[in-house]
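Friendly challenge for the regulars: who can give me the structure tokens for this chain first? No prize, just bragging rights.
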Amino acid sequence: MMDTLASASNRAGGAETSAQPPIVVDARNLTKTYHLGQTSVHALRGVTLTIHRGEFVAIMGPSGSGKSTFMNLLGCLDRPTAGEYRLMGALVSRMKPDQLADIRSQRLGFIFQGFNLLARASALKNVQLPMAYAGLSNETQRRRARKALELVGLGDRLDHRPAQLSGGQQQRVAIARALVNNPALILADEPTGNLDSRTSVEIMAILQDLNRRGVTIVLVTHEADIAAYARRQVAFRDGLIVRDEPVAQPRSAADELRAFRQPQSASLSQEGAAS
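First reply, four minutes later:
Bragging rights claimed.
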């Protein structure tokens, strides 16, 4: 599955001609103003940001900072009031609604805080949904959905409905769904917001693994400890970028998961010795 994702990303970005990977996100002087009656709310005030293929970027900031508005623009869910946004070279900020729908289906993968799964559909059917919209055959949908679920460790939960899955498992289904159309960019909006600490680490371990395999990820979070798993942090305040810097030593979710398991293993060993 990930080999397919990598090759698709290469095709989307074109052959690399230098050490710098292709640009996935090219946002230039984006502004967004909402008019509420006689009041104008300036959510973004001229944001410029470039993200290359293979980056893992955390977008941070308090409520009202503009980070969610920026995420909506990156996800082609809204249009900027001014400025330009190019996704893999395509000028999406000026596309028509039907063109934006195609871009969302073909080049973007979404992971939400609330999972957004169909309650009456199995994990397999939930993951197939984006491919159904793309017009792929049912056989192709099932094959790719199964591979995506196996990739996130749910190969034995294909027929389970959301109510039969834990919160962490539901988020894994959402991650698999985000992957199946080989997106150029995955947008994760507070993906650990509804999860406990250990499950949050498990989800971040999956995202870090995907990133190591070449998947470009932009994660929106207000939690500094979650942003610490990314390789670059961009902080928003009052509609502007106030900080953009690499993370020298990102937290390793895989290492932290092993630390979680060690006390359990030690406890089991002690119980065995006592018996």
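The chain has nine helices and ten strands. The chain has one domain: 2-9+22-260. Your move, everyone else.
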